[in-house]
Amino acid sequence: MTTHPATPAPDEGAQVQLDPQALEAVIAAPGERFRHDYLEVRGLRVEFDGFVAVDGVDLTVTQGDLRFLIGPNGAGKTTIVDAITGLARCSGSVQFGRVELVGKPAHQIVRAGVGRTFQTASVFDELSVLQNLDIAAGSRRGLPTLLRRRRSVPEEVEQALETIGLTALADSPAGVLAHGQKQWLEIGMLLVQDAHLLLLDEPVAGMSHAEREQTGLLLQRIGEQRTVVVVEHDMEFLRTFASSVTVLHQGRVLSEGTVAQVQADPKVVEVYLGRGAGARGSATEVE
Amino acid sequence: MDALVSQLFAGLSLGSVLLLAALGLALTFGQMGVINMAHGEFMMAGAYTAFVVQKVVADAGVSLLVSLVIGFLVGGLLGLLLEVTLISRMYHRPLDTLLVTFGVALVLQQLARDVFGAPNVDVRAPAWLSGAVQVLGVGVPRTRLFILALAVLAVVAMALALKLTPLGRRIRATVANRDLAETAGISTRATDRLTFFLGSGVAGVAGVALTLLGSIGPTLGTAYIVDAFLVVVVGGIGQLKGAVIAAFGLGLLQAGIEYSSTASIAKVLVFVIIVAFLQVRPQGLVAVRTRSLA
Amino acid sequence: MSALWSNERARLLVGIGAAGLLLFVVAPNVLSDFRLNLLAKFICLAMVAVGIGLAWGRGGMLTLGQGVFFGLGGYLMAMHLKLADAGPDGVPDFMLLYGDGTVPAWWEPMRSPVVTILAILLLPAGLAALLGLAVFKRRVRGAYFAILSQALAAAFVILLIGQQKVTGGTNGLNGFRSFFGFSLADPVNKEMLYYIAAGTLLVMVLTVRLIMRSRYGELLVAVRDQENRVRFLGYDPALVKVLAYTVAALFAAIGGALFAPVVGIISPADVGVVPSIAFLVGVAIGGRATLLGPVIGSLAVSWAETSLSERFPSFWTYFLGGLFILVVAFLPDGLATVGRLRLGRRSSSDEPAGPDTSDEPAPADDEHDEATATAGRTA
Predict the structure, then answer these.
(1) Cα gap B63→B123, rounded to integer Å
(2) pLDDT above 90 for C77
(3) Which of A206, A219, B7, C82 could share a disulfide with C92, CB 3.0–4.6 Å?
(4) Where are the transmembrane segments (chain B) (predicted)?
């Protein structure tokens, strides 16, 4: 378990750049966005050349839930995210807002309101922060709009910039951003692409303590209005922010419930016994 | 019946030439991701090696066998030189290797033109390869059978080398996971060099074999390079098995269509069929599925 | 913002003015008829380069088969010129020579100038769109795409040579006497051709500038650098690529269509595997991802080839090969970036290396300037 570094308050203040107030303007503006969407996964199975990575997983995540997926390396956490978003071929059923996602091409799954981030922050390094967000916001733009220049910054992009604290760096190429900033940019891209189901793969890896705190609060705010699933190794982060947890082990659901329930589950204790799950957090997963 | 058998052999023969040309590429492109446009010129170098060796060794039979060995070395050393000087800097931008090696190909062609002259030259085939053998009632030139045998031999040798020798294991480990292989104590640099040497050496052998089919010139390689790359693409990355099936498949297809139309129409149809095939199997015949995003 | 806008606008106007002055006033007055015609030929080749700059430099599609689209444009135009020379219901000379003296049915539509121009604008672009959809939808990309496009060029040339009766074979189509009613023997009409070519090139460069600065242009770069990431933002990268590829094909076709009357011949030697790669030389040397790099690089290479290869044919090949090797291996962004190397080094060393640097607040102003400099370089 990580220990709190004794950070003096003013310093902390200097680092904090996120602006959750601006979030409301991005995700809650039009009233029709208050839909009661939920993610329903049934009998999900993923196989790689004979190796079963995910085996009959059921998962239900409702709006307002901030669900964490945890488990030892190879438990199938990232693979589940891959399967939901169309990156890995799978069988079974994945529904979001009653729309079946299995079998759809990746970009159409996104258009059904599903957004994700990747373990290694993937932003477009050569494009500016603003351009990154603008592209994320624009998948529904028609060709005539695409073929014109951007004359002004779209409202939601402006708000997202403030939310993720990158307004001052809007014109910098994303490649020069610090690691944590890139991950915030990814979250910002999820916000402007109007994702209602957000799948975040290790969103706080490599962040400082203060940055984690900020990110967690931001995710909680988002989780109030969207469906959020977080894959994370950091146990302290999980304890602080998770509203519910699903523990995976060898491609199956081992346990599910609140943090306290899961921690008390003897099966979970057995799997994690002596392993020091928190310490494993630093080990990177198989790519 | 005779016509069918004769087309079948034409296809197999074309397939074996394609296979010889593509085998080295299956290593350098398939395993290492390097698009070596100079591969055809390494074949050309092998062919001219046979031409030079014959000037020294009078007996056509002996000179052919000697040429196969020296051709392998000439091709291999050229490849090694290319890897050390240029390719090694460019593993992170595979598409650019294509352009750089195209430049190398231009230079090598011109070099051949300046040294040996622009007109084509001939290499005598040994007496024991002249004439034809009757197979299933059809006369098949001995040279064609020789090349078929050579191609099969080369594939078997390479497959065994990859499977059984320490070098082969190192190559496969490096291809599977470069970083891990390095951590496991494998010098990936040395492995890259050896792989390139081997792949280019096979090109040299292919070039020697081509001297049996006709006269040779500085642009010999350009005639084969495109088809050879197509074989690797259709076969699937990193798979010898795929390259073998693709080479003979394309050879038979070409010969089959040629039979009912013309060579040029056949060529275009084969291209259309390849594009259609890639619709069904974009990763080629033999694909390895992975998890990576890239 | 408005100051920047007007500044940019001013730069654009100055650029157009300078290019117009050079192409339309200086060149025709300084160069002899022969040299001006040569320049017209270079300009036709540069049109292909402009398209390649878009598809390859901005879109990451290494297209080794632009000769096909260049050739289609050229042959379509040549068919019309041959038919026009032969007169109404006439038969082109080479068909009398090699064939049975009848015009094949698919040649007939090219008697009409309107159909010919439409065909030049639609057929190659349509083929590129179809082919692009077929391969990009199936995520065939990178080296695979390069090899396929090269194979297309190879197949095209074999078809041209094999069908001598209707394509003129290795000789191609040549000996055009008139261009839409204007005699090609008259130097004035040759000069008109030059003006058409120069004007077209200018329009193409401006079109690419527009595309590069549009939202689509940003999206194209995003697809080039991280195709899958774009997919997970809800776009179909295949469609993004198809558009750039189609535009490149269209430019190549127009280049070919003007090349035929300017040079007086279009033959397999102009469109095969080797010329298709040769189109890339100028683009690589000039700077593949820049706006003007491909044009200037292509013009420079054409000029160098003509002046060097006449006197030292063998030296020229070594020079070309060597240039290719040096530029691509050591200056991947082309010669356009040589002057900016110093700046590039500075900005890359300033790049935050990892999460550690995020703990100290960066001096925002400094970072901003640096970043705009970098952005300006890539734009």
Answers:
(1) 10
(2) yes
(3) C82
(4) 64-82, 94-112, 145-162, 194-216, 228-253, 265-282
Inspect the interface and report whether the beta carbons of B289 and A87 lie closer than 8 Å: no
pLDDT tens profile C248-258 = 999 999 999 99
Residue C356 lies in a domain: no
Whether C360 shows a pLDDT value over 60: the answer reads no
> A111 — contact with chain C (CB < 8 Å)?
yes
SS3 A89: coil
Of B109, B268, B294, nearest to C159 by CB-CB distance is B268
What percent of chain C lies above the pLDDT cut of 90? 49
A175-193 tens-digit pLDDT = 999 888 898 999 999 999 8
Given this model, what pLDDT does residue A119 score?
A: 81
What is the average pLDDT across A204-233? 87
Domains of chain A from N-terminus onward: 12-280 (3.40.50.300)
Question: B288 CA to chain A: closest CA distance, Å?
Answer: 8
Nearest residue, CB atoms, C221 vs list A116, A126, A134: A126
Interface of C with A in 78-97 (CB under 8 A): none
Cα torsion angle, C70, C71, C76, C79, sign: positive
Residue B277's pLDDT band (cuts 50, 70, 90): confident
pLDDT band at B288 (very low <50, low <70, confident <90, very high): low
- CB-defined contacts A:B, below 8 A: 14
Q: Answer whether C374 sits within 8 Å of A173, measured CB to CB.
A: yes
Please list, in sequence order, all residues whose beta carbon lies within 8 angstroms of the beta carbon of residue C227, skipping any fewer than 6 positions away.
C141, C237
Q: In the predicted model, what is the mean pLDDT of residues C42-47?
A: 96
Among left, alpha and beta (phi > 0; psi -120 to 50; other), residue A76 is: left
Contact A196, A113 (CB under 8 A): yes
- Which residues lie below 8 Å from residue B176, measured CB to CB, with a gap of 6+? none
**Chain A residues closer than 8 Å to B292 by CB:** 287
Contact B267 C154 (CB under 8 A): yes
CB contact under 8 A, C221 and A124: yes
Residue C244 domain flag:
yes
For position C197, what pLDDT does the model report?
A: 96
- Of chain B, the percentage scoring pLDDT greater than 90 comes to 33
- Give chain B's domain count: 1
Q: What whole-number distance in Å separates Cα of residue A139 and Cα of residue C239?
A: 12
Please check whether residue C308 lies inside any domain of the structure: no
Distance CA C201, CA C295 (A): 9
User: Which chain C residue is nearest to residue A122, measuring alpha carbons?
Assistant: C229
The answer to whether C358 faces chain B, any CB pair under 8 Å, is no
Residue C320 has pLDDT above 90, yes or no: no
Q: Give chain C positions within 8 Å (CB) of B227.
A: 151, 154
pTM above 0.80, yes or no: yes
A54 phi/psi in degrees, rounded to 5: -130, 130
Interchain contact, A181 vs C355, CB within 8 Å: no
Contacts of C214 in chain A (CB under 8 A): 146-149
Residue B48 has pLDDT above 70, yes or no: yes
Domain tally, chain C: 1
Q: Tell me the residue range of the domain where B175 lies.
A: 2-222
Do β-strands A66-70 and A227-231 pair in parallel, antiparallel, or remain unpaired?
Answer: parallel
The residue among A203, A199, A204 whose CA lies nearest residue A227 is A199
Cβ atoms of C228 and C139 closer than 8 Å: no
Whether the per-residue pLDDT at B291 is higher than 50: the answer is no
- Would you say the C-alpha torsion C78, C81, C85, C87 has a positive or negative sign? positive
Three-class SS of B198-229:
HHHHHHHHHHHHHCCCCCECCCHHHHHHHHHH
pLDDT in tens, A249-287: 888 998 899 888 888 888 888 877 545 444 444 333 333
Residue of A nearest to B290 (CA): A48
